Amino acid sequence: MGERLADFLSDMPKWTTIVLSSAFALAILVIIAVFVLLRVLIRELLIRTEEPDNNFYVDAAYFHEIGQRTRQEDALFVSPLENYNKHGLIALVTDGMGGMTHGDFVSRFVVSEFSKISLDDYDHREYIVKKIKDVSNRIFQKYNREAGATLVLVRVDNNMLDLYSVGDSAVILIRNGRSIVLNHKQNYGSILVSNLAKTGKVTKEAYLLPESRQLIDFIGNNNPNVIYTRQSLKLQDNDVILIASDGVLDALSADMLPEYVAGDAGKSAARIKSEIKGKKVHSQDNYTCIILKLRHKMF
């Protein structure tokens, strides 16, 4: 069969052979182009599924209580809700470190610095990380680790979330009745637990050590390690985000929080605050929490 085809082609005029060869080459190029186009279309389709859904809105509330401390060292900031559709929402909680001087000043300074940033700048993660380090280094230069604060900062844009964290305050996601802490604590306890877990040992003892709550990173340290999302987290309808100082989790475990977040953000904040106050925890730290509830617009 191969010889007959070769004889057939050799008997054909030269120009006909050239045309057939060109047509064959063109067909191959078309197949390749179609294959590449399909890959591009599939990739674009997958990317589109992760794009923000602009039919979301957010309900926000907070509480800001002094606990058993002699002064309030927590501070918070929530950007105006009327800017949400255009720029999203910025929410942060910062907790002045107990036992250090000027904790209240540092927490207020952190809020001042981040409330002045243009909402458009929150589109750029590297800029925000650099800003966090710059603010921390300025405090370090002034106080040389004798003053500091924690920081948890989130940006919710439609149904996408970015978070930044230094220290041991928490960002908690509640979904379908379950809660998960989205950032890990930067303290000695977390290191001890990790080391014990790796060797198969019981981790309970790590929580009981006095030094377990000492921070290994904080705002006020030189070039702190910033925990942050490299890609935005996709939120769902009815998700609840809590941005909380550690005083909240001193009284209520993260697993307990879902039972208090039914209804709107204001009612949820009132329930959690009332429950913490009713616990009457000895030496209750200042406790501050911002509650964000995501809702999908019906129309």
Instruction: Report the major sheet.
Output: 6 strands, antiparallel
Instruction: Report the mean per-residue pLDDT as an integer.
Output: 81
How many helices? The count is 9
- Identify low-pLDDT runs: 42-49
Q: N-to-C SSE series?
A: HHEEHEHHEEEEHHEEEHHE
- Strands, total number: 11
Structure classification = alpha+beta
Strand residue percentage? 15-25%
Shape: globular
Can you give a write-up of this model?
This protein has 299 residues and is of the alpha+beta class. Helix content is 39%, strand content 23%. The protein has nine helices and eleven strands. Strands 2, 3, 4, 5, 8 and 9 form a six-stranded antiparallel β-sheet that branches. It has a five-stranded antiparallel β-sheet with strand order 1-11-10-6-7. β6 (170-175) and β7 (178-181) form a beta hairpin. It is globular and about 100 Å long. The protein starts with a helix and ends with a strand.
Essential attributes:
5-stranded antiparallel β-sheet, single chain, 11 strands, alpha+beta, 299 residues, globular
In short:
The protein has 299 residues and is of the alpha+beta class. 39% of the residues lie in helices and 23% in strands. The strands form two sheets. Strands 2, 3, 4, 5, 8 and 9 form a six-stranded antiparallel sheet that branches. The protein has a five-stranded antiparallel sheet with strand order 1-11-10-6-7.
Which secondary structure elements does this structure contain, and how are they paired or packed?
Blueprint: H1 2-11, H2 14-48, E1 56-65, E2 74-78, H3 84-87, E3 89-96, H4 103-115, H5 125-143, E4 149-157, E5 160-166, E6 170-175, E7 178-181, H6 188-198, H7 204-208, E8 227-228, E9 233-234, E10 240-244, H8 246-251, H9 265-279, E11 287-296
Antiparallel strand pairs: 1-11, 2-3, 3-4, 4-5, 5-8, 5-9, 6-7, 6-10, 10-11
